[in-house]
Amino acid sequence: MRSFIRTNLGLKAIMAVTGLIMVGYLITHVFANLLVFRGPELINRYSAILHGQPAFLWTARAVLIVSLIAHVWSAAELTRRDRAARGTAYTMWKPQVSTFAGRTIRWGGLLILFFIVWHILQFTTGTVRPAPFVEGDPHGNVIRAFQIPWVVALYVVSMAALGLHLFHGTWSAFRSLGLVKPSEHPLRHRTSLVVAGVIWLGFTIIPLAIFAGVGR
User: Fold this and answer.
1) What is the spatial distance between Cα 102 and Cα 145, in angstroms, rounded to a whole number?
2) Distance CA 54, CA 162 (A)
3) Where are the domains of the chain?
4) 9-35 burial: b if 16+ Cβ within 10 Å, else e
5) pLDDT (tens digit, 9 = 90+) per residue, 145-161?
6) pLDDT band at residue 216, thresholds of 50, 70 and 90?
7) Each residue of 69-110: pLDDT tens digit?
8) Are 15 and 173 in contact (CB under 8 A)?
9) What is the secondary structure of 15-39 as a DSSP string?
10) Which one is the CATH code of 2-211: 1.10.390, 1.20.1300, 3.40.50, 1.10.287?
11) Do 167 and 99 contact (CB within 8 A), yes or no?
């Protein structure tokens, strides 16, 4: 197993598995966040139930933290190996069969990593407070935060990066694990488009709608 992990194939498998774990979390997270439009009682009760089960909550957090660290480490190692193997940069580079999402996935990943840290500090720990933060009131915290234009802009841009990352990453994960067959149309990733689109739209509509006055 250790020898396999050190190979490029092993690193890609780690990226794929950890990425799919986080995609599964994002799907549940986006639908939970959409409860904000049902009023404060439902989403605040949902949050209280989660925090009332610390063993489950911290187990889930541990899985996500380990997945994130392993995902970032494998991506960084593959990038290092790719650059070391190439030696010198291309004098002229013209993409043939690739998407914009695939070509920007590394930069998008860095933006997403910054956003994750920001999001936790803002809505989980309340360490960063662009708006007043009240412990146990996720509905109020979200409503207050998304009345600030620059906070809305940060989330919208970050969710665009997330959508692109998921579009390429979900497809790439299934390919790395051998779960999909080679396609005659390599730029058409229907399943990953649906997954990325649903998650992107769900997360993006929240700050935009609240900023427009919906759900306040």
Assistant:
1) 32
2) 28
3) 2-211
4) eebbbbbbbbbbbbbeebeeebeebeb
5) 999 999 999 999 999 99
6) low
7) 999 999 999 988 887 876 665 555 555 546 776 677 888 899
8) yes
9) HHHHHHHHHHHHHHHHHHHGGGGG-
10) 1.20.1300
11) yes
> What is the pTM for the complete model shown?
0.85
Q: Are 16 and 70 in contact (CB under 8 A)?
A: no
pLDDT, averaged across the chain: 89
119 pLDDT more than 80:
yes
Total length of the chain: 216
Among 202, 160, 152, residue whose Cα is nearest residue 37 = 202
Cα torsion 167, 170, 172, 176 to 10°: value is 180
Phi and psi dihedrals of 87, rounded to 5?
85, -65
Question: How far is 136 from 159, CA to CA, in rounded Å?
Answer: 25
Separation of alpha carbons 208 and 187, rounded Å: 30
Cβ-contact 151, 207 below 8 angstroms: yes
Contact predicate 121/127, CB 8 Å: yes
